[in-house]
């Protein structure tokens, strides 16, 4: 479904972390192989301490910073709390820029304004929770993708008859779901047909067909609008 | 899409946005919480994995490298390495093992002094200084030895700096004794034993007396403080005298523990109690019982009477004041009794001095069968004739004797033997 941009963890393996990792593995090997230790405790205890220090160094100084960097991107803060706040501020800034655009698309895609608001908030929440690494413009497409997926599931749920759908008074209510998604994402979100095909998981030709059909219907709508 | 329609749609959406504004901040908070939880979970897993891997490798190494832990060296220590003659110190031995561990060695340590004229070491590790000099004391365990140099210094001018009495407190039973030791520390770092030179005193001699060598005798129940004084210094020890605990039964037995009786024979049994102080006593408040009264009966006083053939267990039960029950058993075997003993030939016999005649005893048991038990022979006058295993031999003195045989208290008929006299013709053997 909605795919995140690939994050390469190898870029997080800095020379310092590599050196610490090598030293930690060396300590583990030493603890495993050394026949004797210089301190006055049982050999097995000393071996355990040395291997434990090696494993903990590997976890704390190598693995955990890499995890933090893959999750949150480069951040000046070593501690998790400030790093999360930095990341939240970064996401907020980007979402603020995209907010108007996304809200328009959300309400154009869904005729029920309450559901549109709820699903947009859910899409933002999922996007900010799943996004890894530095924030890029791809975040907008990813959020739209999540929204379209939520909308699809919502309509499936409505068709199951568990809740009566509210009447859709939008001018786009006459379009099918695929046509409405295609025309809104293309004409308002300015996405390419290929991007829409990726979001909807439909072939490009099908998206093009839906778009053409939607264009034809909206011309008719325009004429009616003009008469009005 | 036509511009007019586009503007209409945007206006429609804008109206919805105004009436239903989305709360981006709340959504952002919820997403950030998920990230925080995911990172913390990953870190926790990393730490746990590090600890688990460490434990696994330690266990694997311990399993793969386990071998006999060997004693590598022994360290010998003493409260002081410099002693004065007669001073005693308790030496300690600590073993250093191949796995790096250390352990105090107590049992099985062989102690020795390199120069016993300077200091000797008992098997318990107690070193006693004897004369001025330097010696090494060694502790050997499992073929490994450790050494400590002990210096015995001659009494010098170094002042006595401290005095203590050991043990500093003890509990002794009434009538018991305890030996105290007055130990002095000198300015040159040496230790000395002051039992003979110190002045010993008891604050309550009626409770505990002390002699001039520090031997305390418990005289009455209570607590007394024993002091040793010398050169203005004093050490003390607290002695608590307690009553002797009453001896308690530690075992019960029957005397005899096993016996064979003849039918009809009676024997007095005894119940013997063993006590914690090592003493024994016959018990009278014992309940006796027989496992099979057809074979043997026992009276309330412990008199056993054999009745029928076979084995039977006689039991004695004693209940102490605290309700503890003690029980003992004795195995009694009952066998047939002798019914008759007949000696033949019946005689009478006439023997010249030195002449002999062989007699034979025939024993019959209560079940009618013969037997071959040990027979006791007797001559009424041994000076006239002796009898040994049925062989009668005439003596130097003339006269008449009667020879009898007995088995288990049953006596035979008498056979008359005349020595040096005429006698009637011998009769038939009965």
From TrEMBL, chain B:
InterPro entries: Big_2, Invasin/intimin_cell_adhesion. The keyword Flavoprotein does not apply. It comes from the Bacteria. Pfam families: Big_2 (PF02368). Keywords: Membrane, Transmembrane, Transmembrane helix. The keyword Zinc does not apply. Residues 70-151, 159-240, 248-331, 337-417 form the BIG2 domain. The chain crosses the membrane at residues 43-64. This is BIG2 domain-containing protein. It comes from Paenarthrobacter nitroguajacolicus (Arthrobacter nitroguajacolicus).
């Amino acid at each position: 479904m909605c795919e995140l941009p690939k994050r390469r963890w190898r870029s997080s393996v800095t020379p310092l972390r590599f050196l610490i990792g090598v030293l930690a593995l060396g300590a583990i090997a030493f603890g495993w192989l050394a026949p004797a230790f210089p301190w006055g405790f049982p050999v097995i205890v000393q071996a355990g301490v040395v291997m434990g220090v090696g494993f903990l160094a590997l976890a704390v100084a190598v693995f955990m910073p890499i995890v933090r960097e893959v999750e949150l991107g480069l951040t000046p803060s070593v501690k998790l709390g400030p790093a999360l706040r930095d990341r939240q501020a970064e996401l907020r800034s980007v979402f603020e820029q995209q907010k108007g655009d996304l809200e328009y698309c959300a309400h154009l895609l869904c005729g029920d304004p309450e559901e549109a608001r709820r699903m947009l908030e859910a899409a933002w929440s999922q996007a900010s929770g799943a996004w890894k690494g530095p924030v890029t413009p791809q975040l907008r497409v990813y959020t739209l993708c999540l929204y379209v997926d939520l909308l699809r599931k919502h309509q499936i749920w409505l068709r199951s008859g568990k809740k009566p759908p509210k009447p859709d008074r939008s001018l786009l209510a006459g379009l099918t779901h695929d046509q409405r998604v295609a025309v809104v994402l293309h004409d308002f979100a300015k996405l390419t047909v290929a991007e829409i095909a990726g979001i909807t998981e439909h072939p490009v030709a099908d998206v093009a067909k839906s778009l053409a059909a939607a264009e034809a219907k909206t011309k008719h709508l325009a004429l009616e609008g003009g008469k009005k | 899409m036509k511009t007019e329609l586009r503007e209409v749609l945007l206006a429609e959406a804008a109206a919805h946005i105004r009436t239903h504004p989305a709360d981006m901040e709340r959504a952002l908070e919820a997403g950030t919480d998920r990230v925080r939880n995911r990172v913390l979970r990953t870190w926790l897993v990393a730490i746990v994995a590090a600890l688990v891997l460490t434990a696994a490798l330690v266990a694997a190494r311990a399993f793969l490298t386990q071998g006999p832990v060997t004693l590598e060296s022994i360290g010998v220590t003493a409260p002081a390495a410099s002693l004065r003659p007669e001073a005693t110190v308790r030496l300690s031995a600590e073993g250093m093992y191949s796995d790096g561990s250390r352990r105090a060695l107590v049992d099985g340590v062989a102690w020795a002094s390199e120069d016993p004229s300077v200091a000797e070491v008992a098997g318990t590790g107690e070193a006693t200084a004897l004369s001025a000099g330097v010696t090494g004391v060694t502790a050997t365990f499992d073929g490994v030895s450790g050494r400590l140099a002990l210096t015995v210094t001659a009494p010098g001018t170094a002042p006595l700096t401290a005095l203590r009495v050991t043990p500093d407190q003890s509990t002794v039973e009434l009538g018991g004794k305890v030996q105290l030791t007055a130990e002095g520390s000198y300015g040159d770092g040496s230790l000395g034993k002051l039992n003979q030179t110190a002045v010993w005193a008891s604050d309550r001699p009626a409770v505990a007396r002390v002699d001039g060598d520090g031997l305390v005798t418990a005289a009455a129940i209570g607590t007394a403080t024993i002091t040793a004084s010398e050169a203005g210094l004093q050490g003390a020890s607290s002695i608590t005298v307690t009553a002797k605990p009453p001896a308690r039964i530690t075992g019960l037995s029957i005397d005899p523990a096993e016996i064979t009786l003849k039918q009809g024979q009676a024997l007095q049994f005894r119940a013997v109690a063993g006590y914690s102080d090592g003493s024994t006593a016959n018990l009278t408040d014992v309940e006796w019982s027989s496992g099979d009264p057809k074979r043997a009966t026992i009276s309330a006083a412990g008199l056993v009477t054999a009745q029928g053939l076979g084995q039977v267990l006689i039991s004695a039960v004693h209940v102490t004041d605290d309700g503890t029950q003690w029980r003992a058993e004795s195995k009694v075997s009952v066998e047939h009794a002798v019914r008759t003993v007949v000696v033949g030939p019946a005689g009478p016999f006439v023997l010249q001095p030195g002449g002999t005649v062989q007699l034979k005893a025939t024993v019959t048991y209560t079940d009618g069968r013969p037997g071959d038990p040990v027979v006791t022979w007797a001559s009424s006058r041994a000076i006239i004739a002796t009898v040994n295993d049925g062989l009668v031999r005439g003596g130097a003195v003339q006269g008449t004797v009667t020879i009898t045989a007995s088995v288990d208290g049953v006596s035979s008929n008498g056979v008359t033997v005349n020595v040096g006299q005429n006698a009637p013709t011998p009769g038939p053997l009965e």
